[in-house]
Amino acid sequence: xxxxxxxxSLAEALADTKxxxxxxxxxxxxxxxxxxxxxxxxxxxxxxxxxxLEIDSSKxxxxxxxxxxxxxxWPNICVLSGPNLxxxxxxxxxxxxxxxxxxxxxARKAQKLLNTPSLCLYTNTDVIGxxxxxxxxxxxxxxxxxxxxxxxxxxxxxxLITRGxxxxxxxxxxxxxxxxxxxxxxxxxxxxxxxxxxxxxxxxMGVELTKGRSLE
Length: 216
What we know:
With 216 residues, this protein is an alpha/beta fold. Helix content is 48%, strand content 12%.
């Protein structure tokens, strides 16, 4: 889009900005937020768009971000998640997502800032559930790809998705999430998109594994 500009300077990129959106691989989140931390101020929303857990610590991305920024900025940490296949987002196709923050007022301000004509945002205060739904669904999507690659059919895949959602919910509740979150966009919604679409990278990986290809 014409309003998008590219720069290699963090200082330039973050000058007078209202939100920092961290759409980076989850295993690089810590090094990226360390680079950004010195340029933050209390007026900025800090939005995590990565779906994963840090391998070494098992922390959610918002926890990793909180580790590396000024404690005064913690209330501005938000999470953006939902059934959002990137190829469709790039084509400006209609989509829905959730922006979550511990404070409902912060979530609503971020919602107002990030809403677009093609991306409708809902709010949630269950940061734990929203992040875990986005991270854990990747495991089920990998399994769904394997099931498709082996030709097990839609009955088996439906069973995998629904039983997978049960397991995700049980783990999420144990870790402090609201069980209702997993029946919404960032749980069931994300599962449906990621487990059934050829645009899903995790589903694609599962299919390719059945062809004998390695993770390398």
